UniProtKB/TrEMBL annotation:
Family annotation (SUPFAM superfamilies): Glyoxalase/Bleomycin resistance protein/Dihydroxybiphenyl dioxygenase
Organism listed in the record: Melghiribacillus thermohalophilus
Descriptive protein name: Glyoxalase family protein
Domain VOC intervals: 7-131, 152-269
One Pfam assignment: Glyoxalase
Length: 312
């Protein structure tokens, strides 16, 4: 069986206080909170989804925010850097905006592309890189307009304890194409126009520790449930231990840990985020899966209040 994923579906991370998380990703970066729900495995904490105006696969960063969470350590077995694509010509806007909100950044070049590298309030490492690819994000918020808004993921840098094996998985089993290499990373590209580059750091480093400021897993795209079942069979037949399908309401998921210790997910594109609220109202209220709805009052008492607000 020969399979190809279109690219990244979403990236999920652990962070600290929910208001700090929302202020940064909505208030500073201008992303849309497209869904507020709970961790299906731990309903005492939120699960936030930020993306473009519709929550398109390839634009979604998701968070489990725990106030007072122990800081993690970025290292092997994780996505070390999450890279965002911005429109060509938008870099001066983002330099000025980050300075306005006192967000330190550095300038560097990766595979011939100028990159701004920064950290969120809880320590996640983010890149901003100009790309022609990807549709314009029509969402406007807090002074971030579509002509400069983050389109979605450019990609990510994988910190693998077994870089060669991680690269072989991406290229030989997941349909990525090796397109470039420098002294630090090997770059792989998929067919999508967003979330389409994955870099693998060539040299293993210190082992990562899960906690606030670290990526929990990276998810890749399946077209639909039938395609996901093919992925499950494909990966299992090549020696990977794959979970049963997990219903996440807005997509279905399977998980496996690749040989470099990074948790991979294959998530379906449908049904999307408009199944329980209109596109105009996305992210405006707490949505619970059916099994937790009878416990809404108790859950809402536990969750910390927050608001999506424009920042001065």
């Amino acid at each position: 069986m020969h399979k190809k994923t279109a690219g990244i579906h979403h990236i999920t991370a652990i962070v600290g206080h929910p208001q700090e998380n929302v202020d940064f990703y909505a208030g500073v970066l201008g992303l849309r909170l497209v869904k507020q729900t709970v961790n299906f495995d731990d309903p005492g904490t939120y699960h936030f989804y930020f993306g473009d105006a519709e929550g398109t696969p390839g634009t979604l960063i998701t968070f489990f925010p725990w106030s007072g969470a122990r800081p993690g350590r970025i290292g092997d077995g994780q996505v070390g850097v999450t890279s965002y694509a911005i429109p060509k010509g938008a870099m001066p806007f983002w330099k000025e905006r980050l300075q306005k909100f006192d967000v330190p950044f550095t300038r560097q070049e990766r595979f011939g592309e100028p990159v701004l590298t920064l950290k969120d309030p809880h320590g996640l490492i983010l890149d901003l890189v100009e790309r022609n690819e990807g549709k314009i994000n029509t969402w406007s918020f807090g002074g971030v307009t579509p002509d400069v808004a983050i389109k979605g993921f450019a990609g990510g840098i994988l910190y693998s304890s077994q870089p060669e094996q991680t690269g072989e998985l991406l290229e030989n089993l997941m349909g990525f194409k090796k397109v470039d290499e420098d002294s630090d990373c090997i770059r792989f590209r998929s067919s999508a126009d967003i979330g389409n580059t994955v870099d693998v750091r060539k040299t293993p480093g210190i082992r990562g520790q899960m906690g606030a400021g670290t990526v929990h897993h990276i998810a890749f795209r399946a077209r639909d449930d039938a395609d996901q079942q093919e992925w499950k069979a494909h990966l299992s037949s090549n020696g990977y231990i794959v979970t049963p399908v997990q219903d996440r309401n807005y997509f279905n998921s399977i998980y496996f840990r690749e040989h470099g210790d990074i948790l991979f997910e294959i998530a379906t594109d449908p049904p999307g985020f408009a199944i329980d609220e209109s596109k105009e109202e996305l992210g405006s209220s707490l949505k619970l899966p059916e099994q937790y709805e009878p416990h809404r009052e108790k859950i809402e008492k536990v969750l910390l209040p927050f608001e999506v607000r424009e920042l001065d």
